[in-house]
Amino acid sequence: MSGITIKLLAEKLNLSTATISKALGDSHEISDATKQRVLNLARELNYVPNAYAGSLRRNVSKTIAVLVPEVADSFFSLALNGIEEVALAKGYHTLIYLTHEKLEREQAILKALAGGRVDGAIMSVTAETNIYDHIQEFNRQLPVVFFDRVCEEIDTAKITTDDYQCGYNATQHLIEAGCRKIAILSIPNNNLSIICERIKGFKAALADNGLNAEDGDILYCPEEPGDSYNFIKEIMFSGNPPDGIVATVEKLTTDIYLVSQQLGINIPKQLKVVCFSNQASVNILTPSLTTITQPAFEMGKAAATVLLKSLRNNELIMKEESMVIPSILMARGSSVG
């Protein structure tokens, strides 16, 4: 059946065209029962909305922006899949922007988008982001939702995981596995909320187990892969190397394994390792990698759901939509044995 219009749906359901339009747009003004009636008939008749015309009438683009530091990290790849799943189901397009961990690029992207090219943004800030005026300015015009890396200074929804507890659990796991000199490895910039929280959890676990500052090192690896390798090699080649490592980002995993292999360090007998990672390949490493597995896909879905909800309801109090989705410690061969 072709030529199905909102007017025809309205006539068949004895509803107004305005009600049909709002129901198809998932408006909070329409009851769930009515929405379901409309959606069922639309599916039955193969109704295809004219998204372009609808966007022009409502002065919206039906497009959302997503700003992420990178996509090589499996966390962001999975989160993007979650965002896309929700956006596509609601008839929205996504524009994905890579900031490459550069504050200047983040500022330029938000400035360009504020003119109305998108209806709102989902973002995870860069490692350089230590000023927030550009985000405040964007948020005055269009809604923004943070996920993973957030700015506490911005009064909006934040979708995070329990980073403090993750740092604590990873450290506690290594202590229970017999480690007494533990290092937490991170990227060089400590502005990020997620890194700060993980380090706080690390420190708390040491203190709760009677270990002092000398028993734990907070180490910031250089950005370049080759430099990180040499940095880790120096640590492990020193006279007092750690017997346990918590890696706060998954890209450090390769260098830890390569250094251990070159120096003849047995994982897990001489060095136990826990890494924040969502990589599917962790099970085929030798030994398999113990991970803090973050709910990346779920966080992406939640961020998109909140943003689209705000676009349907201008009176939504965004900060009340914030949520913390727990991560899971998956013990494997790199810390057991």
UniProtKB/TrEMBL annotation:
Residues 4-58 form the HTH lacI-type domain. Keywords: DNA-binding, Transcription, Transcription regulation. GO terms for molecular function: DNA-binding transcription factor activity; transcription cis-regulatory region binding. InterPro entries: HTH_LacI, Lambda_DNA-bd_dom_sf, Peripla_BP/Lac1_sug-bd_dom, Peripla_BP_I. This is LacI family DNA-binding transcriptional regulator. It holds the Pfam family Peripla_BP_1. SUPFAM superfamilies: lambda repressor-like DNA-binding domains (SSF47413), Periplasmic binding protein-like I (SSF53822). Gene3D superfamilies: 3.40.50.2300, lambda repressor-like DNA-binding domains. It comes from Mucilaginibacter mali.
